[in-house]
Every structure is written in C-alpha cells, then in structure tokens.
Design brief:
alpha/beta; Quinone Oxidoreductase, Chain A, domain 1; Rossmann fold; 9 helices; globular; binds nicotinamide-adenine-dinucleotide; binds zinc ion
C-alpha cells in the first residue's frame, strides 16, 4: 500500500510503497477513509535530528477516521465495518492515566519514544493503519469521514484546552482565540457551543478571519501593532478572561499577556517555540494561570464526536487524494489552507 513516510530528518516526507500490516494479538487494522494534515506535521518534518524521540522511518498522519478492516485474535473491539475515529495520543497502556483514557498525560510519556499515531508510530497517511488496542477506537456512526478525522486532534485538542478554561468562562466573560486555522476555527465553534463567552479572534490572514466569523466569533481582527488596545476596548477595558494561543510565537505570547485580565488564564496550544517570561511582578497580570494542554482524553473525544453529530460543529475542509499529499504539505507550509486539509486514499 502507499504511505506518506518520514524517512530522514530534515527531508520532506515521501509517498512510499510499504507492506499492508496484519493485526496480531490485541491489534486492530483500520481501513483509512480520511486523514487530516496538522500544522504539527510540519513541526515534525522540520525538527532537527534528536529534537524528537521518534525512530525513522514512520508513516505520518495523526487525525484518522476509517472503518475496522480486521481484528487480531485477542482484540476485543468493534466488528469489521464499524466506522471509527482514532484516539491518537497512544500511551503505555498500563499506568493509571492510560487506564482512565488519559493517554495524553501517560505517566511514561517521556520514555515511550513516540507521541502517538503518526508521531513516531505508523500513522494514517496510508490505506491502512494498525492500532495497538481497540480502546483507541471511538465510533462515529454516519459522520462523514472528512468531518470525523479532524475531530481527533483539531477538535479534541481545542475541546480539551477549553475544558480546562471552562471555570473562567461564565456569563459576561470574554475569550480570545489567536490563530484561526485547523484548531482555531473549531475552538471558536466549541466556545460558542459550550460557553456563553464573547469571542474575539485574531489572525494574520483575512480569509482566516472570514472563517472565524462564520465559525461564530463576535469580533475578528487582523494582528497589528494596536491589536491589544483595540481588543481590550471591546472588553470595556478590563481585558479577556481566557486566551487560547494556537500559534505560540513571541508575538502572540506578548499579545496574550497584554490581553489578559487579572485572574485570567492563558492556554498555550501552539508549538511556535516563542518565549514568555514568567516573573512576579512581570508581564502577566496578578492571578494569571498558564496551561500547556496536550491533545485530549478518550472520553473527551467521544464528547467532541457527539457534539459534531448533534450538528454543533462543522469542520471547514479542503480535500485532496493521498497521492497529492506532497502538494498538500506545500499548501499548508505557504499558509494557503482554510480550515483543515484532509487526505483521502485513492
Ligand atoms: P494551522 O496552520 O491550520 O493554523 C494556524 C493559524 O494561525 C493560521 O490561520 C495562521 O494564519 C495563523 N497565524 C500564524 N501566525 C500568526 C500570528 N502571528 N498571529 C495570529 N495568527 C497567526 O495550524 P493548526 O493545525 O491549527 O495548529 C496550530 C498550532 O497548534 C501548531 O503550532 C500546532 O503544532 C499546534 N498543535 C498543538 C497541539 C497540542 O496538543 N498542544 C495539537 C495540535 C496542534
Ligand atoms: Zn496535530
Ligand atoms: Zn501510560
């Protein structure tokens, strides 16, 4: 079968012929119907040798939807044909966190040598993907595959980040979303669906701001010198209760700090490598809280899928055949994608 593989650090991934895996033990073979392309895939491709604990080569693709093709002899999972989305942050499978479906915070995460499916383990940019255990499968019913696949990271990561902020997002509050791409446009929709907050969106592209407005943002503005002042004015001068930063550059972290209200909370999701100095007194207002959410939990993935099936979420997708994966990577790199790119095996 064809697969989009990372074969050397510092080199673009390539479409390669590999053998179709067959499930052993507890494993489940899933036939891929759609796989999302995440900005993290670019961070992985661009990583210097030694920066990530992954062994090469492996197949990329960590946002995967498909149907069960075959079960290993010991697998206790849904029958062949069942349509599923993959819970991606595979942990050790044995610790208390993994037992609770919180593989994203597995106690042995630092020793695993991978971060999940398509991140150090063979992922879904292929016709089939091998899943180590049926516990990583979440049924999707008749949800279209291009809608389901991005839920497993863009949707889940946003949902998990917002779940951590929910206590600060009651009536009369303001939430800022910085970077309205694959994750950000779903974060806006999840904020609208699950909180009463007023939503302020920021991006550097007009078409991302259009998407922010269509996703339910109350205000959408281009990042400029005076953005912090303009947005603070939209909060009556008090500042925002929570900032979700889906970029994580020096610029966006400075903006986040300038926007926060005393007692506010910053969730840093983007892996842009920017720095923020935490100091008392410093740039963060008194009472600030900072979180570094990573992906999400399995129960949360089931909740995101339910939210999407209720009609509350619509993923803006651009679809390409898997054979066009190299072009799709190029479009994402050049900032030409609106919403999420989804690859479909051809
Ligand atoms: P994306 O490319 O789809 O979207 C990024 C958006 O940010 C784009 O709309 C872009 O125009 C905008 N942007 C870029 N620079 C900006 C700036 N200075 N100010 C405002 N907006 C700016 O990316 P994505 O797939 O949504 O991923 C977003 C980030 O989140 C990436 O860094 C990715 O690696 C990270 N990520 C983290 C997790 C996690 O678990 N923490 C999970 C998935 C992705
Ligand atoms: Zn991702
Ligand atoms: Zn574990």
């Amino acid at each position: 079968m064809r697969a989009m593989r990372l074969t050397a650090w510092g080199r673009e991934p390539t479409l390669t012929e590999v053998e179709r895996p067959s499930p052993r033990g507890d494993e489940v073979l899933v036939r891929v119907e759609a796989v999302g392309l995440c900005h993290s895939d670019l961070h992985v491709v661009d990583a210097a040798e030694g920066a990530l604990p992954y062994r090469l080569p492996f197949t990329l693709g960590h946002e995967v939807a498909g149907h069960v093709a075959a079960l290993g002899p010991d697998a206790d999972g849904p029958p062949p044909g069942e349509r599923v989305v993959l819970y991606g942050p595979w942990g050790c499978g044995h610790c208390a966190r993994c037992a609770a479906g919180r593989d994203n915070y597995c106690d042995r995460r630092g020793d695993l040598g991978w971060h999940g499916v398509g991140l150090g383990r063979d992922g879904g940019m292929a016709e089939y993907v091998l899943v180590p255990s049926a516990r990583h499968l979440v049924p999707i019913g008749d949800l279209p595959a291009d809608q389901a696949a991005p839920l497993s990271d863009a949707g889940l990561t946003s949902y998990h980040a917002i779940a951590g902020l929910r206590h600060t997002l009651g009536d009369g509050t303001n939430a800022a979303v910085i970077g309205v791409g694959g994750l950000g446009h779903l974060a806006v929709q999840i904020l609208r669906a699950t909180t009463p907050s007023h939503i302020l969106a920021v991006d550097i592209r007009e078409e991302a701001l259009d998407l922010a407005r269509r996703s339910g943002a109350h205000v959408a503005t281009l990042l400029q010198e005076d953005t912090a002042r303009v947005l603070r004015a939209r909060t009556g001068g008090v500042g925002v209760d929570a900032v979700l930063d889906f970029v994580g550059s020096d610029t966006t972290l400075d903006l986040a700090a300038a926007l926060l209200r005393p007692g506010g909370e910053l969730a840093l999701v983007g892996s842009g490598g920017g720095r923020l100095t935490v100091r008392k007194p410093g740039v963060l207002p008194p009472g600030s809280r900072l979180s570094l959410p990573f992906w999400g939990t399995r129960p949360e993935l089931a909740e995101v899928v339910a939210l999407a099936r209720s009609g509350a979420l619509h993923v803006e997708t651009e679809q390409f055949p898997l054979s066009s994966a190299p072009e799709a990577f190029g479009r994402l790199r050049r900032g030409e994608v609106r919403g999420r790119t989804v690859l479909v095996p051809d």
